[in-house]
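hey can u check if this looks right to u? its 107 residues, i copy pasted from the old doc so theres a chance i mangled smth
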Amino acid sequence: MTTTKTADAIITEEVISWPGVEAGPGERGEFAFKVEGREIGHLHGDRAAHFFFPKDLWTELYEQGRIVHHPVFPGKKGPAARSIEDDADVRDVIEMLRLNYERKSPG
């Protein structure tokens, strides 16, 4: 029997392998990744990821087409969303979580 991992399983497996990352369900149905209690991003199943970036980084990622406005905060720089539709999206979500991990992890 062949088992194919879902996007959220692939992302979770990678991100929880980083030192200091804790993961678990949030209060609104999301699955959050945190470093020392600070969220680096969260997933909504295997269909979407949400992040919060500093405005300059948010602008850069937005201009590159890597993120869109967060649905709860339309038009606001900082909160971001990324849909997950294929393997390239999975890799990019991991990369963006890594950006926040490197910004928020101690040391």
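Residues 52 and 79 are 4 Å apart (CA to CA).
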